[in-house]
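Module 6 notes. Inverse folding takes a fixed backbone as the condition and produces residue identities as the prediction. Think of it as a translation problem where the source language is geometry and the target language is the twenty amino acids. Below is one complete input and output pair. Work through it position by position during the lab.
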C-alpha cells in the first residue's frame, strides 16, 4: 500500500523480525507487558515523535481496549479498528449477550447479568440445568472460564473463578452460561464501512481447542451445509447492520444439533484471519486500513466467494503433548513453501524466543481445492517445517492429521482433550 511503518517494541524484542523489517522502530519499555505493550503513554509518544497518523493494535494487548481507542482518537491519530463504543459494548460480555438477543441473534440460556455470589449462580444453574460455565464478564481469548457440574463444587469454583478473573482482567465479575456437551465453535467474519454497508466473509471452524485455546482452524466448516452457511451469514449481517458496526469483527457461536448460540464478538483482527484470506482472496488487513481511512468497502456481498478449503495450524513454542513452554534460541529455521502454502511468523535462525509473551511463534496455513487436498498439502508442509533449538507443537499437528476422526471432520470443542488423553 506504500505506507511507511513504525514498529514499537519492548527491550526483549529489540531483535524481533517486525522491528528489523519496519521503516522505523521505537522501544517503548522493558519486557513486562504492563511496562511496554500495555503502556499507553509510551505508545502515544512513539506515534507523536515519528509522526504516525494511525495505530494498528494487532490482535492482542490493547486491541480490544475501548479507552485506548478513545485516547488514540483524542490525540488526532486514527485507530485502525471499530469505534470505541462497539469495543466497549462487546467487551462487556453480559452487555454483548443482551445486545445480541436484542438484535435477533440466539444466545445460550444463562444469567441476565453478573451474579452476586455462588448461591445466586447455583439457583440459576438449577433452573437451566447443570453443567454450566462461570465466565468472566471482562474475559476474552478463551480465558476466565470455569466448568461447574453440580452444586457440591459451586462455592469453591466460584471463589476461585472470581480470584482468577480479578487477577487476569482487573474485574472479578462473573456470569452464568449453559454448558453444551459437544458443540462446535463456529465464527463469522464481518466487515462494515462508515456508509452502513456490512458484509460477511463466511465462517471459520475453530473447534480443535485445548482449554478454550484454538489449535487448528479451517474454512469452510466441515459441519455446515450451504443452507446453514447462508442463513447464519445473513443473520449476522442483518444484526451488524442494525448495530451500525464498522471495520472488522468476528461473531462467535457454539453450534450443536443444528442450532447456533452466540457466545461473544471479537472487535478486532483474529489470529486465524489468514484462513479467510486464503479462501476468499481478500486481504483483511488492507481492508481494515482502508475502512479506518473512511473509504467504503472495496467489495459487496455478491463479490465474496469461498473457493477451496483452507486449514491453519498454530505452531507454539511448547512441548507438543505436555504443552510446557519451550523458550530459547532457534538454531535452525526452515519454512515450507510451494503452491498455496502461507507462513506467518517472525522466527529466523539465531532468534531467541523469550519466555515473556504468548507461545505462538508461527501460523502455517494451506489451501487446496477441497478439504482432502488441503490436508495432503498440510501434511507435506509440516514435514518440511524445520525449527530446531526449541520444542514446538509441529508433532502434535502431524498426529492430528493421522487421526481418522479429524480426517473425517468429526470433532467438537471437547475432542482434542479426549485425543490427548488417549495419546498419553
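Target side of the pair, the amino acids:
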Amino acid at each position: 500500500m506504500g505506507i511507511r511503518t513504525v514498529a514499537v517494541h519492548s527491550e526483549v524484542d529489540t531483535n524481533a523480525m517486525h522491528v528489523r523489517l519496519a521503516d522505523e522502530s521505537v522501544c517503548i519499555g522493558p519486557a513486562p507487558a504492563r511496562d511496554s505493550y500495555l503502556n499507553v503513554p509510551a505508545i502515544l509518544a512513539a506515534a507523536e515523535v515519528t509522526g504516525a497518523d494511525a495505530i494498528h493494535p494487532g490482535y492482542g494487548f490493547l486491541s480490544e481496549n475501548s479507552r485506548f481507542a478513545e485516547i488514540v482518537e483524542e490525540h488526532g491519530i486514527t485507530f485502525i479498528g471499530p469505534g470505541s463504543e462497539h469495543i466497549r459494548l462487546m467487551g462487556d460480555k453480559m452487555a454483548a449477550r443482551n445486545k445480541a438477543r436484542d438484535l435477533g441473534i440466539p444466545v445460550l440460556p444463562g444469567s441476565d447479568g453478573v451474579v452476586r455470589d455462588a448461591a445466586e449462580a447455583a439457583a440459576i444453574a438449577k433452573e437451566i440445568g447443570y453443567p454450566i460455565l462461570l465466565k468472566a464478564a471482562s474475559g476474552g481469548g478463551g480465558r476466565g472460564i470455569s466448568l461447574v457440574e453440580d452444586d457440591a463444587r459451586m462455592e469453591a469454583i466460584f471463589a476461585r473463578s472470581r480470584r482468577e478473573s480479578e487477577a487476569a482482567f482487573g474485574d472479578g465479575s462473573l456470569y452464568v452460561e449453559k454448558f453444551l456437551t459437544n458443540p462446535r465453535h463456529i465464527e463469522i467474519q464481518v466487515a462494515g464501512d462508515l456508509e452502513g454497508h456490512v458484509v460477511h466473509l463466511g465462517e471459520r471452524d475453530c473447534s480443535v481447542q485445548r482449554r478454550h485455546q484454538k489449535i487448528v482452524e479451517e474454512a469452510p466448516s466441515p459441519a455446515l451445509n450451504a443452507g446453514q452457511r447462508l442463513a447464519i451469514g445473513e443473520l449476522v449481517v442483518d444484526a451488524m447492520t442494525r448495530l451500525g458496526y464498522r471495520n472488522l469483527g468476528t461473531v462467535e457461536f457454539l453450534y450443536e444439533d443444528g442450532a447456533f448460540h452466540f457466545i461473544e464478538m471479537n472487535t478486532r483482527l483474529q489470529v486465524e484471519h489468514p484462513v479467510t484470506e486464503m479462501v476468499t482472496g481478500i486481504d483483511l488487513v488492507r481492508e481494515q486500513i482502508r475502512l479506518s481511512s473512511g473509504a467504503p468497502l472495496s467489495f459487496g456481498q455478491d463479490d465474496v466467494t469461498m473457493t477451496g478449503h483452507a486449514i491453519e495450524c498454530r505452531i507454539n513454542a511448547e512441548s507438543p503433548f505436555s504443552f510446557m513452554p519451550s523458550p530459547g534460541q532457534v538454531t535452525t529455521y526452515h519454512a515450507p513453501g510451494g503452491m498455496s502454502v502461507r507462513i506467518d511468523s517472525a522466527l529466523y535462525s539465531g532468534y531467541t524466543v523469550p519466555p515473556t509473551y504468548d507461545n505462538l511463534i508461527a501460523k502455517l496455513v494451506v489451501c487446496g481445492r477441497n478439504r482432502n487436498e488441503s490436508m495432503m498439502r498440510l501434511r507435506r508442509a509440516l514435514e518440511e517445517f524445520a525449527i530446531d533449538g526449541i520444542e514446538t507443537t509441529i508433532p502434535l499437528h502431524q498426529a492430528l492429521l493421522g487421526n481418522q476422526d479429524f480426517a473425517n471432520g468429526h470433532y467438537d470443542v471437547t475432542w482434542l482433550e479426549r485425543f490427548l488423553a488417549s495419546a498419553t
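Reference fact for the lab report: The CA atoms of residues 94 and 367 lie 37 Å apart.
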